[in-house]
Design brief:
CATH class of the largest domain: Alpha Beta
Helix content: 10-25%
Shape: globular
Number of domains: 2
Largest sheet: 5 strands, antiparallel
Strand content: 15-25%
Structural class: alpha+beta
Strand order of the largest sheet: 3-4-5-10-6
Number of helices: 6
Radius of gyration: 19 Å
Length: 309
């Protein structure tokens, strides 16, 4: 997976009560450097009616809302099929976007819409958009993403949401998740994810219980010295990094079948603040893979440390 897909565009750090604060190696998402090729002006190529994403190889309709109004899941699929039949904009392989592909367009620095600064898209409706995946635990529901704030949830397929077509062509997209025995390798208390290059704590609850957001950030430093012997630079993952563990074909938890982790909890903090409301941080709900938010002062979420090679 391209490293850019594991980064967010968040550039500011925030206190637990939502105020801006300097990013002095405080463990927050924005305290880490960002790759230049993750910037919108480098990533996207605008054409007459489409936009090519050089990071993923996908081609999106430049108009993000070609249906002009929400559709049910079946209506959305029929609309996509008609686009393919008519070879709209010269493509015959339009599809609803895979969840992770649409998530790759989400900004964690901007809201309404939650797209990158200087993005080339038009007619962006800051509401929910369908993805192509069904919820594994609830097959009558499908996943959708909110382009106003960035949340990911699932809802009934007879509900009505917006449609943003994408063509992935011959590019192998990242929704293909390797089996756990191929994807993960275990080295004592560490698990390396070959798909992303990230190293995770095998114990998915090394702090022993839920923490506030600030306590979770502080606890990583203590774990580095007390439990991991200072051998690696453990930290709280950003929201894209922890979302990368999600396997939508499974549930309870939504991790690859046969995964090597122990003590997996229901909900996890990320180091990424929700700029929609900076007193909240982005969180992963592991039962299905929902991406939501948690109130930073609340003692409701767990810490799952990560590091890079």
């Amino acid at each position: 997976m391209h490293r850019g897909l594991l980064e967010t565009d968040q550039v500011h750090c925030y206190t637990e009560d939502g105020r801006l604060t300097p990013c002095d190696n405080n463990g927050q998402d924005a305290s880490r450097g960002k790759k230049k090729d993750f910037l919108a002006q480098d990533r996207f190529q605008k054409m007459d009616h489409t936009v090519r994403d050089h990071l993923t190889g996908a081609v999106w309709t430049r108009n993000t809302s070609p249906t002009e109004y929400p559709l049910t899941c079946d209506e959305a699929l029929a609309f996509i099929l008609d686009m393919c039949t008519r070879r709209v904009h010269g493509y015959s392989d339009w599809r609803l976007p895979p969840r992770r592909l649409l998530f790759s367009l989400i900004s964690h620095q901007n809201v309404n819409p939650s797209l990158f600064s200087e993005h080339p898209f038009e007619n962006v409706f800051p509401g929910y958009f369908w993805t192509e995946e069904t919820c594994s635990r609830l097959p009558d529901q499908a996943w959708y993403i909110h382009l106003g704030g960035g949340r990911i949830h699932h809802g009934m397929k007879q509900g009505s949401y917006m449609v943003w077509p994408v063509s992935t062509g011959e590019h192998e997209w990242v929704e293909s998740i390797p089996k756990a025995n191929i994807r993960f390798t275990v080295d004592e208390g560490c698990v390396r994810d070959r798909q992303t290059g990230l190293i995770w704590s095998k114990d998915a609850n090394p702090a022993g219980g839920p923490l506030t957001w600030q306590d979770a950030l502080s606890t990583v430093d203590a774990l580095n010295s007390e439990r991991f012997g200072g051998q690696r630079d453990w930290r709280m993952p950003n929201i894209r990094e922890i979302e990368s563990l999600v396997d939508l074909e499974t549930h309870s938890p939504a991790l690859s079948t046969g995964h090597p982790f122990v003590n997996v909890q229901d909900a996890y903090w990320s180091s990424t603040t929700s700029v929609y409301e900076p007193r909240y941080a982005w969180t992963l709900y592991s039962r299905d893979g929902i991406i939501g938010v948690g109130f930073k002062p609340g003692n409701d979420f767990f810490l799952w440390p990560v590091c890079c090679l």
